[in-house]
Amino acid sequence: MQDSQRTPSERDALFAILADPRRRRLLDVLETRDPGARMALSELADRLAAAEGSTSGERRHDVAAALHHVHLPKLDDAGLVEYDPTERVVEATELSDGRSDPGTDVLLTED
Description:
Blueprint: H1 8-18, H2 21-31, E1 39-40, H3 41-51, H4 57-77, E2 81-84, E3 89-92
Antiparallel strand pairs: 1-3, 2-3
């Protein structure tokens, strides 16, 4: 759905979801993959933990838990990713690249 078709409350909800830096980094990581390519939760957690300056096993586990229970379900509900919690794999959707939603593309660019 393009930004012009969203209600103000839907836009506000999307902006709130994208306000989190980890979610924006997650979308950046997925954007580097081939379209339709799936990424394992463990690989995504490793990459995000490293981007956040930590490579300890405990930190990667904490990142994976936060992704599984908080961030990926929110992004999935918003249509920005497809997350399979059973298989623990995620892939970007067309909406996650920002081009489908010009009003949110600036939020998808990391500071």
